[in-house]
Amino acid sequence: MKERNLLLVIFAALVLTIGGYLAATQLHLMPVEASTRAVLVDRLFQLLLGITAFIFLLVEGALLYAALRFRRRPGDESDAVPVHGNNALEILWTLIPTAVVLFVGVYSVQVLQDIERPLGNTMVVEVVGRQFSWEFRYPSADVTTSELHLPVGRPVLFQISSKDVIHSFWVPAFRAKRDATPGQISELRITPSLVGRFPIRCAELCGPGHAGMINEVVVEEEVAFTGWLEAAKAGAKEPAAIMTQFGCVACHTLTAVGSTGQVGPVLDGIGAQAGSRVPGLSAHDYIVQSITDPGAYVVQPFVDGLMPRDFKIRLSDEQLQILVEFLLGQ
Ligand code: CUA
């Protein structure tokens, strides 16, 4: 009778595990697998999930069964039967977990080695996190941009760092995430395997604009990628492109470029207001000062220190001029 009940518990654990596994895989809870490592990571994750779910249900089921089956009945004042050791059982419950942990450990190390193995023809992309945008550098082409484009099938080595606080570079579809730490370069290897656009997120709370550090990686055919890189090399000359490249849109609302950031002042109508902000400063000079020396005058109720102070170096004179002319017309 007892054996039959135990078999029932094991059977129920199996049914729930398989049912849960099917639900998890058929309901598309995970993003698409857009890199070669995604397949390996998912396989490992599903195996771990399967093993842990089965053990959890088995143990909880046995616990529930024992609690119900051996509970104290009304009027029962007797002691339980004392049990002293059971060598066979103790050897079994030491050997089985040891085997499971060893198997999972060896398999995990294999997956790690597979996904971190350096491959030929690897392209280096430097990823820089800053409050509050991502910047990408292609050292081979001497291109810096706010857009991440990658050719499909080509191995990529990301060299990830930060200009200010700790951010975390995360592309869920690649199953890849690594912290961007100031003063340190962290490496991450992936090979995109699917053409398309996939979300980039910051996975480390880094300040008031954290939620705005969203971006997209564009995975495309080699020809399209090369064309894009050539165009990017020619440099951003359009005001909207400049504002996207330098991350202005993440923090400022400006209807003309479709941005809705709320970390800094709204820029709609800035052309009309700029001349009256600081006595003695023309609208033109005020906008130049606001971009190159953002701490000089801070619009209430915003606080100093949120806007990067290096636009003076990063923007070319031409880009700064284009931006100022554009903002004067807003
Ligand atoms: Cu950067 Cu969160």
Word description of this protein:
The structure is a single chain. By secondary structure, the chain is of the alpha+beta class. It folds into three domains: 2-67 and 88-116; 123-234, Cupredoxins -  blue copper proteins (Immunoglobulin-like); 239-328, Orthogonal Bundle (Cytochrome Bc1 Complex, Chain D, domain 2), CATH 1.10.760.10. Helix content is 43%, strand content 18%. It has helices spanning 2-26, 36-69, 87-116, 222-234, 239-245, 248-251, 270-273, 283-292, 311-314, 317-328; strands at residues 123-130, 133-138, 143-145, 148-151, 156-162, 167-171, 176-180, 186-190, 196-202, 215-220, 253-254, 259-260. The chain has a five-stranded mixed beta sheet with strand order 3-2-1-5-8. A five-stranded mixed beta sheet has the order 4-10-9-6-7, with helices on one face. A hairpin with a 2-residue loop joins strand 1 (123-130) and strand 2 (133-138). The longest helix has 34 residues, at 36-69. The chain is elongated. The mean pLDDT is 88. It binds dinuclear copper ion.
